Amino acid sequence: MKKGTILVAMLVALLVSGCNSPSAAKQKATANSISKKRAKPKVNPRIGKIISSKKHDYNMPYQMVNKKMKFYRSLKEFGTTGGEYSDYSTEEGHIFGVDKIYQTSKGGTIYHLRLYQSGGFEGLAAKDDSDFDYYDNAGYVKASDMQQKSPIRSERTLPKIPYYIAKPYTRAAWNRPYNTAYYTYVVHVLDKFVNKQLYATKEIIKTNGERYVYLESKTRKLGWVYASGQDLVQGNYVDPGKKLLKPKRLEKLECQIQSMNTLPKNRSQSSSVLVQQRLYTVKDKKQHLLRLLVIGMDNRMIRIDLNHDKPVKLVVYSYLQKPWKTITNQQKLMSHYRAAHLASDVPWATTYFYPKSKLRLATVTIDSTEAVSTIKISRTGRAQFKTDLGKHILGYSAKRLQ
Question: Is this prediction's pTM over 0.85?
Fold first, then answer.
C-alpha cells in the first residue's frame, strides 16, 4: 500500500509540473492573442479608418447634387450593395440636415443625414412617434454628393399688409413653411379667424416659387400661411352681411352666431369644423323677413331672397364672395338645390325648402368628406346650428390648434 501511494504522488507531481512549464504558458498566451484578434472590430476596406468625427448643426439645409448617389445604412456597410439604404430617385425633392461629419482614411468625408420632416396637425407630439425616428435617420452619404443649399429664395419683413381668409379648410398656419426648417408643424387653424382682419408682417418665397406670409391679428400671432389667392385674399375684411345683403335705411340687419359649445372638440385635417356658422337676416319695420345670408362651416355664403314669406331667389357664392350659382326656378325653390363642385375635396352646399304650412323655412347643409354642418331656419328668422365630425375620422385637439 505504501509503495502504491508513492507512485500516485509522483504522477500528480509530474502533471502539475507540466501545466506550469514554459511550453504550456506559451500555448495559453497564443490562444489569448488569437481571441483578441478575433474580437477586434474589422475596418471597412472601402472607407478605411475613421480619423475623426464631429457633430454638425442639422438645422442647416442640404440638398442632393449627384443623381447617381447612394445612401447607406451604416459606416460598416458603406459602399456595399447590401448596405444601400436609398438613392437619388427615391429621395428627390427632400431636404436634409447633416448631424455628424466623419473623416476617413480612404473614403474621404462622409455625412450622416437627418431628413427634414413635418408633424402637421400632430404638432410636436409627432416627434415622439417611432415612425419619426425611423424616417429621421437618412443614412450615410459621401459629402461630395451633398450641397448646403437653402430652399428659401428670399425672406423679408412687410409693412403690415391687410389680408382676410376666404377658404379656411385648405390651409393652416405653420411654425415655418414646409421644408424650410428641420421640423415644421401646424400651430393654428384658420377657422377662428374667418371674420377677422389679419395682417401679413413677413414674407418667404421658396426656390420653387411658393410664397408664404406670416399672419397676425390685432391681438395675436398666427404663423406662416401659404399665400394662395383662392384661400387668402389681400385687402380689408368687410362684414359679409353688410356687403352682400345691403340693408336699406328702414331695414334692420341682425346676426346670429353658433355657440362654441356646440362645436366639435377635435378638428380634422380637411374640414373647418371649428368655424362658427352664422345667419344674417334683414327685416322690414314690420318684422317681415326679406333676405337672409347663411355662412356654413367652410365659410361658404348662401343668400335667400323672399317675397311675402316665399323664397324667390337663391344665390350661392364662391369663397371669394362672387355669385357662383343663381337659382330663380320655382320648382327648385320649393324643394331643394345642391351646389356641388366637380372636385371631390370641395364640400357640397344643399338648401332645402319647406311648404308654407311648415314652421321651418329652410335648412342649409354643408357636407364634406369628414364632417357635416347644418343650419335650420324658421320663418321668423331664428337659427339652429349643428356641426358634426365623423366618429371614425382622425381628429386633432381643437384646444391646441386655437
Answer: no
